[in-house]
Amino acid sequence: MNENKTTAKLALLSISLLLTSANAVNGALPMMKKAMHLSATQSELITTISSIAVVIMVLLSATIARVIGTKRTVALGLLLVGVAGIVPMFVSNYELILVSRVALGAGFGIFNSLAVSMIQVLYSGNTRASMLGFRSSAEPVGQAVMTIIAGLLMMISWHMSFAVYLIAFPILFLFWKKAPDVDHFQKEDPKDIMQGAPVDTHHYPAKTSPLVWLFVAFCIILMSNIVAMNVRFPQITAGIMGTQFNSSNILAVMPILGIIAGMLFGWVNKHLGKGTFYLGIIIFVLADLLVAFSAGNFGMLTIGFFLSGIPGSLIIPFIFNSLPKYAPKKAQAFAASMMIVGFNIGSFLTPFFLRGIEIVLGSTVLTAPFSFLAGLMLVIGLGSVIGARMVK
């Protein structure tokens, strides 16, 4: 099979459309919370619990691929996403829904890292760089489109919003029919595969820096803040506009802003360097403060929410782009995997993190945790500046 055919490339890219779709049904959370008499923490867990399964399966996916093959492993993950994703269409039991969301996360985790590694094996040079760029854009595009579809389906019932995961089946069909057999390419001469690829002249450190683990800790906090925005916004909006207000269209706009910020990352990083990281922190602090002090002001709340879609597209690629400075070449894949694990742990812990902040602050107001998060981000930003100067 010719890996350079457009259909083959589309098949490989299509699987990334699903990877961030756990958030696609966030607009239904207020209705689910009311229908099943859930607490804020319980309703938020419906979105975030899938992340713990992602962590486990990301670590196991390479082993599964060695046993049954890469293409079959991805197909298994897609099948699991499709089947587990639609379970809440038919049940109203909270515990069963949580189990189905864990299974959904397992499906994501099975092909999460393979979505990248398949491109790395099949392509080289500018083609590889372009494919990886398109793959990164596919995630927020998929999230935006699936959020809009879920919002339209939610007009029927909250159960129907989960029908959005049926899209996994045509993607599975496309991938199985058109995606190249990656394992076949891995058996070929590496020189043939890498022909035309640029020579890696980067000087890697001899051992992994402890800063890598600080990056992992920061990834946990960063993703908790990002997910907090996504799961709290529909609930805060429902408190202002009413439970029946459909926030899905607004939720769909934020990934689009992330796409734009991601497209500008190269230019921003070229001109600002480390300032790219600080810019992301500043924007997140501002977003958190706007949400924290919105006090029933829907306009201020929405602006804060939109702004929160920008920092991740600046900070996350900055972290991955910085890894060669802090880990040996042979440890790059492990370091990158640890970042992914950190992101998913942060996502899973978000409801408990938010509840913990509410207990500390002595407030159950849904916007209360964001003032704390703003302060935490500010401390991290200042600590980074001081740390960078001390290293000099």
Automatic annotation (TrEMBL):
Gene Ontology terms: cellular component: plasma membrane
Membrane-related topology note: Multi-pass membrane protein
Key word rRNA processing present: no
Keywords for the protein's UniProt record, in alphabetical order: Cell membrane, Membrane, Signal, Transmembrane, Transmembrane helix, Transport
A Pfam family it matches: MFS_1
Domain Major facilitator superfamily (MFS) profile: 7-392
Protein name: MFS transporter
Organism annotation: Periweissella cryptocerci
